[in-house]
Specification:
The structure holds three protein chains of three kinds. By secondary structure, chain A is an all-alpha fold. Chain A has ten helices and no strands. In chain A, α1 packs across α9 and α3 packs across α5. By secondary structure, chain B is an all-alpha fold. Chain B has nine helices and no strands. In chain B, α2 packs antiparallel against α7. Classes of the chains: A mainly alpha, B mainly alpha, C alpha/beta. Chains in contact: A-B, A-C. The interface between A and C is medium-sized, with 24 and 30 residues.
Chain lengths: 237, 213, 363
């Protein structure tokens, strides 16, 4: 145990591990790059869908069932399969990451919209807001705790799953784990694990912060509860 | 992408072994997880101050990417089954703890008060009134945890275990889709079966919720 | 003015919520729609701002067919208050109140002034402006709801059990304050409630609806009580109808009887004469300022010289001229003389209200 710790510290102390294509900065940036790309794409696709079914109230059951079904599919296997089908490249991995993150985001946004008090919606319409104004001025802000929770879950999930990009010969922090396992280089493996865990936690914390900023203070109490609820709907890995 | 049925026929033994290992690697963590989460839940209800910190720790564990957590175990447990089982168990804690607590808390106050007024002791009340009523929420937690675990088990192929994950890796490394597809299909089937099976158990345990007649 | 022209609403499952409703809400009046559950009062209200569309018939709002303008445009000119208020939880009170002005496009300065003014008008302190709905009490939220509806100064208001979600004490307060407001603003209002007493208190006119959306009677509270159209209305008006009628008539509206009034210095013979004229066996005793000190029975003056030597007994209560005849009856019942002594706000004698006075008004 003690040996492992010392070799780990040595690994981090070794300047070689901070430079070049296999250096920590590079790998971290790659990992962030894959993740951000996937998150942005997932949001761009999932949020409009979630808003649509949330506002109209239709299609929710389908969305929920799809999300539950998605949970049963092992991400790991899907990534391997996409690779086999589409070959090396970022695109197949991205597709896998995005597709696996979408159901959870859609469901959370839908749930957020459904949770808007019907009296609040009623008075918004009664005061003369058009459908689009109701969405923009009332439903989205009020649903924000759950929308943000969905984005947070999916983001953390994507950061975690991006680790597998290394299995299909891409970069990212998973590289340390996979290569380390192959070469039986324990310090490298552990270093990779620690870095990935740290990045994952940072993403979680960063987005929690963001949530606190973006969500109106009039809603803050519900925000905390909503976060816990939806945390469990997501899967990591 | 051609699916090679012949391969399936030839390798039934390996397929079955992978499935069996997968089931073992699911059942043990869920079982252990529940055994740990249940007393934690009871403690959280008895001493509410405990709930937040317990939930917080379980939550942090849950946020750590699976592969990372497995790998971190290696210095302690090498590449044995324990390396897989410990993290898999820890992942179930958040969901099982939360759902057990919420399930018990969700029993309506007036029901608990009626029981108390009728002279039930705390223990009897727990086992005869509160637990049965909490079953749906607890089982919901078990279902989510089980389905999640089944997905995570595949990842353990990278650290020497694997279950159906071994089929994934086999197919991947040999650039041969068939084992991969078999593994995926079996994995999803296993998850759906477990989910519905647990739902069935829930129905058996809660006869009062069934439709009359 | 709001005009219902043969408005009918039939839902898909066959329920009729409005059955050929026709009535007019005159400008500046508060009309109450009241009736039991299922009478369609809320449906009728919501057809005015097209939250529900009529199956047949037309609703005319301020000279236009409501269906001829886009619904959001129509609604921005109508204040809408519902029972649960529906304040936007993510906005401050000030932003909540500013909603319609912001939708219409008022500039910031004008909106801010208006918000400040309205917060005052509904009886809240300015520090509430920066708070969020969850931080306010039920009564405060109701007031904000009213302020929000008044923000763009709409000529028409629709109110659906607006004071229903608070306790009776707060409710009475809110009702009184709203009536005061309405006296100033003179909005055209349709007000829905299931409580006949609230209807009587708030309404200039009342429409009594029956299950199935049938209009049973449309009249002023007084006319309703005096001449109920049928048994349903009688039942709905509830017990003690005459007392309710009396509650609507102020003492100042009737001619009090002069009554036998003497002063303490007057000789006993004067008292005997006054009593004989009035047909009573007692007389009222007042001081130089016409304030009533009490009463004497004529018998007790038998051996006495002046009124002041007799046994002057005090009154428990008086009734002032702005109280109702029902209050007068309450005072009357307490008095062994079976009359209520009417005074002005300074306590000076104005007359007596007798049983005959009351019966006369009820005819």
């Amino acid at each position: 145990m003690f040996e492992v710790t010392t070799s780990l510290i040595e690994w981090f102390a070794d300047p070689i591990n901070w430079q070049g294509p296999n250096g920590i900065p590079t790998r971290v940036l790659e990992h962030i790059y894959y993740s951000v790309l996937a998150i942005v794409l997932a949001v761009a696709i999932a949020q409009p869908v979630g808003i649509l079914i949330g506002h109209t109230g239709r299609g929710g059951a389908l969305a929920i069932n799809l999300t539950n079904a998605a949970r049963a599919v092992p991400t790991f296997g899907v990534i391997l399969l996409t690779f086999l089908v589409a070959g090396i490249g970022l695109a197949p991995v991205l597709v896998a990451l995005v597709v696996l993150a979408i159901p959870s985001m859609v469901t959370n946004t839908y749930a957020g919209f459904r949770a808007v008090d019907r009296d609040v919606r009623d008075s918004a319409v009664g005061m003369g807001m058009t459908g689009w104004q109701v969405i923009r001025r009332v439903e989205i802000p009020v649903a924000m705790p759950l929308i943000m929770a969905g984005v947070r879950i999916s983001a953390v999930q994507i950061v975690a799953t991006a680790t597998f990009a290394a299995v299909v010969s891409l970069g990212g922090l998973g590289r340390y784990i996979i290569d380390g396992l192959a070469q039986q280089d324990l310090p490298e493996v552990l270093a990779g694990a620690i870095l990935v865990a740290a990045l994952s936690l940072l993403t979680e914390l960063g987005l929690s912060r963001l949530q606190r900023v973006v969500v109106s203070s009039g809603l803050q109490e519900e925000s905390e509860e909503a976060s816990m609820e939806t945390r469990l709907e997501g899967t990591t890995g | 992408m051609i699916f090679d049925w012949a391969w399936v026929a030839d390798n039934l033994g390996d397929i079955w072994a992978a499935l069996a290992e997968h089931i073992v690697l699911t059942v043990i963590p869920i079982g252990l997880g529940f055994l740990m989460a249940f007393p934690m839940a009871l403690a959280s209800i008895r001493w509410p101050g405990l709930y937040s910190p317990l939930l917080g720790v379980a939550g942090i564990l849950f946020s750590i990417p699976t592969l990372a957590l497995f790998v971190v175990m290696i210095p302690f447990t090498g590449l044995s089954k324990a390396t897989a089982i410990v993290p898999l168990t820890l992942y179930t804690l958040l969901i099982l703890l939360r759902n057990t607590v919420e399930g018990l808390k969700g029993v309506p106050v007036h029901v608990r008060e009626a029981a108390e007024a009728m002279g039930y002791t705390r223990t009897r009340q727990l086992f005869r009134i509160e637990l049965p009523l909490a079953v749906p929420v607890i089982v919901a937690g078990l279902r989510i945890a089980t389905v999640n675990t089944i997905a995570y088990v595949a990842i353990t192929a990278l650290i020497g275990q694997g279950g159906l994950g071994n089929l994934f890796m086999d197919g991947f490394l040999r650039q041969f889709p068939t084992p991969l597809i078999v593994g995926l299909v079996l994995s999803v089937t296993l998850a759906v079966t477990a989910d519905l099976g647990l739902l069935g158990v829930q129905r058996v345990l809660t006869p009062w919720q069934r439709d009359p007649g | 003015m709001i005009i219902f022209e043969s408005v009918t609403k039939r839902f898909a499952d066959g329920t009729v919520a409005a059955d050929d409703l026709s009535f007019e809400v005159p400008d500046g009046e508060l009309v109450v729609l009241v009736g039991p559950s299922g009478c369609g009062k809320t449906t009728a209200l919501r057809m005015v701002n097209r939250m529900i569309e009529p199956t047949d018939g037309r609703i005319n709002v301020n000279g236009q067919d409501a269906a001829s303008v886009p619904a959001p445009t129509l609604r921005r000119d109508i204040g809408y208050v519902i029972q649960q208020v529906g304040l936007f939880p993510h906005l401050t009170i000030a932003d909540n109140v500013a909603t319609v002005p912001s939708l219409i496009g008022w500039d910031k300065e004008r909106t801010n002034e208006r918000v400040e003014e309205l917060i005052d008008t509904v009886g809240l302190s300015q520090e509430v402006a920066g708070r969020y709905p969850r931080q306010l009490s039920g009564g405060q939220q109701q007031r904000v709801g009213v302020a929000r509806a008044l923000a763009a100064d709409p000529p028409i208001m629709l109110m659906d059990e607006p004071f229903g979600a608070v306790d009776p004490i707060v409710r009475a307060l809110l009702q009184d304050e709203f009536l005061r407001l309405q006296r100033e603003l003179k909005k055209t209002i349709i007000f829905v409630t299931h409580d006949i007493d609230e209807a009587m208190k708030m309404g200039d006119r009342i429409a009594i609806l029956n299950v199935g959306g049938v209009l049973e009677q449309y009249a002023t509270p007084t006319d309703l009580l005096a001449e109920p159209a049928n048994d349903f209305v009688v039942d709905f008006l509830g017990a003690e109808r005459n007392l309710k009628r009396l509650a609507l008539i102020p003492v100042s509206a009737v001619e009090p009887e002069p009554g036998p009034l003497v002063s303490a210095d007057d000789p006993a013979s004067r008292a005997r004469e006054a009593a004989r004229e009035a047909g009573t066996d007692w007389a009222l005793v007042s001081d130089a300022d016409k304030r009533v000190e009490g009463w004497v029975s004529i018998d007790s003056l038998d051996e006495q010289e002046t009124v002041g030597n007799g046994e002057i007994q005090p009154f428990g209560h008086f009734v002032t001229h702005d109280e109702s005849l029902r209050a007068a009856l309450d005072v009357m019942v307490e008095s062994p003389l079976n009359v209520a002594v009417g005074v002005d706000e300074d306590g000076r004698y104005e007359g007596v209200v007798t049983h005959n006075t009351l019966t006369g008004e009820l005819d």
